[in-house]
Amino acid sequence: MATEVIMPQMGESIAEGTITRWLVKVGDKVERDQPLFEISTDKVDAEIPSPADGVLIEVKFEEGATVPVNEVVAMLGAPGEVSEPEAASAPQAGPEESESVHGPAQEPAGSVHAPPPAAESVQNTENGANAESAPGPEARPVDEPAPEAERVRTFSSPLVRRMAAEAGVDLSKLSGTGIHGRVTKRDFEEYVTSGAGSTSTEVKAVEDEPLVSSAASLRPSSATEARQAQIVTPMRRDPGAFSVAPYQEGDNVEIAPMSKIRQLTAAHMSYSKATSAHVTTVFHMDLSRVARIRDLAKAGFAAAHGTKLTYMPFIFTAVASALQSNPKLNASIDGTNIVFKKDINLGMAVALDWGLLVPVIRNADQLNLVGLAKSANDLAARARSKKLQPHEVQSGTFTVTNPGVFGTLFGTPIINQPQVAILGLGVIEKRPVVDTDREGNDMIVIKPMSYFAISYDHRLVDGADADHFMNDIKRTLAEETWSELDPFI
Predict the structure, then answer these.
(1) Which range marks the domain in which residue 397 is found?
(2) Is the domain of 338 the same as that of 442?
(3) Farthest CA pair distance, the chain
(4) What's the pLDDT tens digit per position in 347-368?
(5) Most Cβ neighbours (<10 Å): which of 127, 129, 180, 237?
(6) Does the CA dihedral 456-460-462-467 come out positive or negative?
């Protein structure tokens, strides 16, 4: 029996991935966990492993295709086996009409499609859909349009539905170009970018609105929301929305296309800036205690565990502890609800030659210094070699980025949606600071110091919340004994 190979979800907010390269050809024998193809999203470039042993008998999407998550992209089977769509259509097709399995899967008119992915079915149940009364896949030919309620609920991803709700767009008005008529993110972006759904009367009404004069007027009107949908959405989802005027022949420039991961990162960062109310707070951190203990223990630690002891596991320990005491920073916003995450999963931004990836250390609060060091070093190494697995870039609840390794004093990082905060680390370097001895005498001393900057979403996190969180980190770094390193000192 053939095994389906699906497009994995490479992150909580990711609804699709782009196939950048097939690593095997149809007819090739593959083993379980052998890389099959490479994908690119705004969170990761990764090699996707085979789910089973077998032979690649069908490729449903070519290189460069953008595919919704949980969609079948290929089929595995035994040697000599053909895929079901191919076997079903073979007797009906002449030699001129047959198509290589390298091309898109073809189905005869009126054929029956497979039901939506399981993840979508779960979403439908949660939204109150009646599974027993809903029409099955046999109930409607492919060329018959779906009822409006079913198209909105089934033929769009949760991400598209959320984007539509934010922009005030009725999804039932859109024609989907995705598999089975699915309304894709691209369909939604093109619809909003074209200005559909807004009128000149609405725009003029916004321009004529008076300044805010009462509490009731703080909530945007429907006309204001229409204008936001027209202006903000292209900025946050379309990296090409601000293209400059075309260059003239003879201009001294070189034009190169963006890589797929760069395009998606641009769209995701613009979306984050348009979604969250960003505020950044900077703290000066004393790392003299950490530096002293690390210098004493790093040689013995590397010999015992076969991995480097950097500053990062110390910082991850402090961050995980502070998140336990400040749950707002480990949450997300869902409409008018606050979703407090029970797990502490730390995303760690890794800079690569071709983009930025954010692998996740799961349950970081349950790992000691050794576990955090091994996890961080392993994830960073496999990110650089494109060996990350789908689950290793999913479900992050808080992100730490470290531009300080490049000499940055401090920065104002952009929040990694749907999280509500991100911590940026500045360079660790010796600086003169004022210290006070036990007798209360002030003195200037040299200490390893660093600026830590936290960007947070002011829709949920207030300045006091962020400051409490940062003070907890500061206290841990300055006062923790790190006794588990005693055997290596």
Answers:
(1) 279-488
(2) yes
(3) 96
(4) 999 988 777 788 999 999 999 9
(5) 237
(6) negative
